[in-house]
Design goal:
Presumably involved in the processing and regular turnover of intracellular proteins. Catalyzes the removal of unsubstituted N-terminal amino acids from various peptides. Belongs to the peptidase M17 family. Keywords: Aminopeptidase, Cytoplasm, Hydrolase, Manganese, Metal-binding, Protease. The chain has helices spanning 37-42, 47-53, 94-107, 123-136, 151-159, 177-201, 209-223, 232-238, 241-247, 300-315, 360-372, 387-393, 405-418, 451-460, 497-508; strands spanning 3-7, 18-26, 29-32, 63-67, 76-84, 113-117, 166-170, 226-230, 255-261, 269-280, 320-330, 342-344, 350-352, 378-383, 398-402, 422-424, 442-443, 468-473, 479-480, 491-492. Strands 8-9-11-10-14-18-15-16 form an eight-stranded mixed beta sheet, with helices on both faces. Strands 1, 2, 3, 4, 5, 6 and 7 form a seven-stranded mixed beta sheet that branches. It has 15 helices and 20 strands.
Amino acid sequence: MTALTLTTSGAATLRADVIVVGVAKGAAGPVVAPGAEAVDKGFDGKLAAVLETLGATGAEGEVTKVPAPAGFKSPVVLAVGLGRQPEKGEAYGTESLRRAAGVAARSLSGTKKAGVALPVEAAEDVAAIGEGLLLGAYAFTVYRGGEKRTSTAAAADAAVKQPLGEAVLLGAKPRDKAHKAAAERATALTEEINRARDLINTPSNDLTPEGFAAVAAAAGKEHGVKVEVLDEKALAKGGYGGLIGVGQGSANPPRLVRLSYTARGARQSLAFVGKGITYDSGGISLKPAGHNETMKCDMSGAAAVFAAVVTAARLGLKVNVTGWLALAENMPSGSATRPGDVLRMYSGTTVEVLNTDAEGRLVLADAITRAAEEKPDAIVDVATLTGAMMLALGSRTFGIMANDDAFRTTLHEIADEAGEAAWPMPLPADLRKGLDSPIADLANMGERMGGGLVAGIFLREFVPEDITWAHLDIAGPAFNEGAPFGYTPKGGTGTAVRTLVALAEHAAAGDLG
């Protein structure tokens, strides 16, 4: 992973392969952002004019390279667009800095060392730039290389550049406690987000429920997180009908993993529950062609929960956090659950399965019920749950539903603070009737319209009335099928980790009531 260091050295004297500066979109053309004063001076105050001559406007995501001024130890200056110049008296937003840093890091693949001279006014800027750099530099190269490659394949592998080796953040003070803490937090957080991305990008033949559980156990041992794993025998004995029902069609049996981080003196407790379908074929209700190829990402919710709990442990947050990974592979076979079958869930509730491709809510229901038995102050589940949520909010925004309006608002504010796009969604009472079954307590499908909300209503049925609960449907932003942007790569994104970690930080500070 890219190394992040802080320095008070000047841009002219830093020995690096490139110096990164920010440029904003001003009313009359590009404007050099704070932090780049030394570089602008090297251009006799004409850096903006030089960049404009080369076509730069300062628009977000724009990258322009120019030779460094005479006397600089670095040969190249890379100018990255920050978007609109703030009004007088305003500072650059942390998300703008995060995105710009991500674009710079992606543009510098194959570079060993870069000095980054983006605007730094406070520790929050150090954190945002650090996160952007380390997330933007991410690359998934596990399946590149091998001894028995053809010359063509070997050439293709050689063309894949390694991530930026080291990012030196200019203007940040290594001896300042707040700056140092911000950099350390950014490193721990992004390492776990990138681990989640690795899991999401790993093909399903190499990441089964058992394999995911083993990864969690190893990480728990490393970072002081207690890990308990229920295998298929324990699940059957315990009456986890949702997990067993979804997983029984696969040769790779299901698992329920409990991660537990306990902090001395903690006053609040949180439970995070993640959907972990390591591959979703749809089961007997088989997905149509064109909808199967990315279904290795259907465990993104569990990956986010796993990363959040480990991050909380690494940061030593003063809050108790449990993570529940509901892991199964949804496959069609002679032993698979059929449409029309009835499952008895861990709660004792019976569910008529009308569509085996609505499986995520079944495994989550079992895990939510189990998590609620420990009486946490709040439960948050995370899942790539419905295509309907993508239709509603697009591919970059996740939906937030809750049984408490105030908590839903708080989560929305926390997500925004963390830099993750989210939107509060309702749980309309009139949609509940569609989940009625003539032979069971519930059906796993309701009305087609508002399907993302119906799924949330289904999950709410398994939450005790005295426990605060929220549901994050991350179906849209969990896996980026398009081109990289900002600090977001193609493939697994690690969406919701920052929101969950920020929620845990608020709970540790006593900000949740």
